[in-house]
Write a structure and sequence with these properties.
With about 60 residues, this protein is mostly helical. The chain contains two helices and no strands.
């Protein structure tokens, strides 16, 4: 359970950093605020496998 929480938190940080650096490049909604939120969620989903590998091998190795 702790690994899942750490993975989600790490994914949030990595996705937030990507969103901060890259901005809202994906046009997922016509509303600007909803588009920014959807871009953050998309970046978090993309960072999830990377965060899992970092946590899995960081704690396991």
């Amino acid at each position: 359970m702790a690994v899942l929480i750490l993975t989600l938190i790490t994914s949030l940080f990595i996705g937030g950093a990507l969103w901060y650096v890259l901005g809202s490049r994906l046009n997922l909604s016509a509303d600007d605020e909803q588009n920014q939120l959807l871009n953050l969620i998309a970046y978090m989903a993309g960072a999830l496998p990377v965060a899992f590998v970092l946590i899995f091998f960081g704690l396991g190795g």
